[in-house]
Amino acid sequence: MNYKFTPRQNITYFFSKFVNLFNIFYPIPERKPGISVMIRVKNEEKWIAISLRSLKGFADEVIIVDNDSTDNTMNEILKVKSSLPFPIVLKKDSSPDICQISNKALSLTTHRWIMRWDADFIAYTSGDRNIIKLRKYLLSLNRNNFYVIYPLLINFSYDLFHLRKNKELHSENYIHTFHPLLKYEHKKRFVTLKVPFFFNVKRMLKIYFVHIGFVKPIEQLLERYFRHPWDKKEIRDEYPRMIDFIKAKALKIWNTDRLKDIIQKMFDEQKSFLYKYDREKYGDYPELIKKVLKNQSFRIIYKNGKPYSRSDF
Q1: What is the rounded distance in angstroms from the CA atom of residue 26 to the CA atom of residue 196?
Q2: How far apart are CA 101 and CA 41, in angstroms?
Q3: What is the pTM of this model?
Q4: Helix, strand or coil for residue 239?
Q5: Are residues 23 and 89 in the same domain?
Q6: What is the dihedral sign for C-alpha 257, 241, 78, 107?
Q7: Which of 23, 112, 142, 199 is the most exposed place for a label (fewest CB within 10 A)?
Q8: Is the pLDDT of residue 55 over 80?
Q9: 3-state secondary structure of 188
């Protein structure tokens, strides 16, 4: 598996080796040793329990900030909570601003290492990719340095049996040590973590977890697709509800505001890039995913030997 770093990533990585020397002027904050995992969640009832269970042996605490979930996400968290070996701090935040939610979660962490996790990430819990090995690696790094790591993960697309060309591997989360200057902020279309210049940037090519990604119900797929353009104050002022923005935008683009038509149009734009997951190339599934493979409600449908639609569209 090959992942191509962008020129900017290469430059940042190169210069971090030198600017890291400046960290001697910045004292290491006093924090508990170990790893805090922060999760921003909204309507993730299908995967949140498995996601949390996959963190056994890795996390020392999990901070969850719920952004007004309307499904059974909270019930799923509470059901699994007592069986987990780490404490869960559960808070709510109704803000439409993902930066505010992210910074709130960050502020609640108490350990030196922090990993931003999503409720649809599933870690490997056995074999060479066991996430416990990632924990051992993080805790072995020099305690007198600051670090930020951008790990790679396998990204599924529309079901658990397909990937999307050029999107099969990506880096969507952060692992880093704590410093008060860390802050999430909007940068063009995305929300990024502003990292102080003296942090040492580490590359991690080994994969320890996967991203369920687009293996979601229609409403969540639409929210994921339209989240970034809607996540601007002037747009939210005009369309307080994301669903209204989605319908208005789809009418202009595809001349329809029917949800199943919109999602099919989205799928049509991407279906030529979809291809079947190859276990020999990408490795086997995480153990916790293997247990649910046979009961998947989302399956890509083929027509004339090519991806055509999905079972629920």
Answers
A1: 10
A2: 9
A3: 0.90
A4: coil
A5: yes
A6: positive
A7: 142
A8: yes
A9: coil
